Write the structure tokens for this entry.
Amino acid sequence: MILKSIREQTGKTFGDEVHLTVEADTSPRVVELPEGLKRAFQTEKEAKAFFEKLSYTHQKEYVTWINDAKKEETRQARVIKTIEMLKKGKKGHQVPIPHLPVKLDSETAQDLTLAASMPRINS
């Protein structure tokens, strides 16, 4: 799967043939901390130490969750929750997958309706 932004930059779309070169990314992966989390880490040394041991991906999950909040008070609440989770040894904040609307043709919709109404057999 190629990101839409990359497809737009290259002028390619679904079904087009592309040639790729894969190179190892050896540069350090560093997460930019939000200000609220930086301030919290000044007094929450235990949480900071645990955070620093986390993988880049887990650190990024926490930071993205905080930064995605639209309101400042929500960001502050998420910083508090992040500190609590880190102190409990939680590796990352699991960001829920959004439910996306799906358009189905009538035959597929009917198949799904039938499958959902069938009794489940436990083996």
